[in-house]
Design brief:
The chain is of the alpha/beta class and 283 residues long. The protein has one domain: Dihydropteroate synthase-like (TIM Barrel, Alpha-Beta Barrel). The strands form two sheets. The chain has an eight-stranded parallel beta sheet. Strand 3, helix 1 and strand 4 form a beta-alpha-beta unit. It binds ligand 8Y7. The site of ligand 8Y7 has 15 residues, from strand 7. Ligand 8Y7 binds next to strand 7.
Length: 283
């Protein structure tokens, strides 16, 4: 069977993302308190080397984040966030062949990162902060809209849904409508179910199982489950022992049509994606 997609090329600044295949996005935290890296990559040169290694391992996007979204993490000022993110965006843009995604909810960080060469805005708050819709629209860059209720600090306080997948879909549709009003057309949007954000284990598992329903929104899906507590809780594993569970979810996400996998373990995930592609391209 042949599937013809309307547009498979997503312009991301001075690069293009081919949405006909699945891509691996490597996570680069430049926060001193990030939960699984313990801040080891906060120095500019170490961060750049880490980004370089992820690109060599096959990442086509690097997600640079300067604000920890860990529950209970300290709030970072926009100046502090900019001071963490801007230098690494600039260096990656100058030195590496990769699309830079900037993990931010902060309008000033969106604008400055775009100016310094970022190709994608990844906002876990779906452009709900004051000025974020306009800032993202002004950059002309694509945006990843992610589902979350509340704020990282309180999102895990007893989240409730009638039907998590339906409600996530409704939320994302509403954010797409807000984007359209602000001048960000659907063609520039990537959607993300937001695993681990305001969701219990059962919510995450059900949302993952029924993820395909979100294809009805007509936009590519990004999935981020790397090392998350849904793996820890399902398998009873500490954060350092979640790779295999994460790779199982990566494979499932590819089969369910996800186009971008946001991960810490790039080399391993690239093998998963390539192995599936090898089978799918057989006679
Ligand atoms: C996600 C994310 C995080 C995710 C998107 C972590 C910044 C928590 N998770 N962005 N960011 N999707 N789009 O464990 O699932 O990596 S931070």
């Amino acid at each position: 069977m042949t599937f013809v997609q309307s547009s498979t090329r997503l312009p991301c600044g001075n690069r293009v993302l081919d949405l006909a295949r699945t891509h691996v996005m490597g996570i680069l935290n430049v926060t001193p308190d990030s939960f699984s890296d313990g801040g080891r990559f906060s120095q500019l040169d170490v961060a750049l080397r880490h980004a370089e290694a992820m690109v060599a391992a096959g990442a086509t996007l690097i997600d640079v984040g300067g604000e920890s979204t860990r529950p209970g993490a300290r709030v970072v000022s926009s100046i502090e966030e900019l001071e963490r993110v801007a230098p690494i965006v600039e260096r990656i843009h100058r030195e590496l062949d990769v699309i830079i995604s900037v993990d931010t909810s902060t309008p000033a960080v969106m604008r400055e990162s775009a100016r310094l060469g970022a190709g994608l805005i990844n906002d876990v708050r779906s452009l709900r902060r004051d000025g974020a819709l306009d800032a993202a629209a002004d950059t002309g860059l694509p945006v990843c809209l992610m589902h979350m209720l509340g704020e990282p600090g309180d999102m895990q306080d007893n989240p409730q849904y009638q039907n998590v997948t339906t409600e996530v879909g409704e939320f994302l549709a509403e954010r797409m409508a807000q984007c359209a009003t602000a001048g960000i057309p659907p063609e520039r949007i990537i959607l993300d179910p937001g695993f681990g954000f305001a969701k219990s284990l059962q919510h995450n598992l059900s949302l993952f199982k029924h993820m395909e329903a979100l294809h009805a929104l007509g936009r590519p899906l990004l999935v981020g489950v790397s090392r998350k507590s849904m793996i820890g809780l399902a398998l009873n594993r500490p954060v350092g022992e979640r790779l295999h569970g994460g790779l199982a979810l990566a494979a499932l996400a590819v089969v369910k049509g996800a186009r971008i996998l946001r991960v810490h373990d790039v080399a391993e995930t690239v093998d998963v994606v390539r192995m599936i592609a090898a089978v799918e391209s057989a006679e």
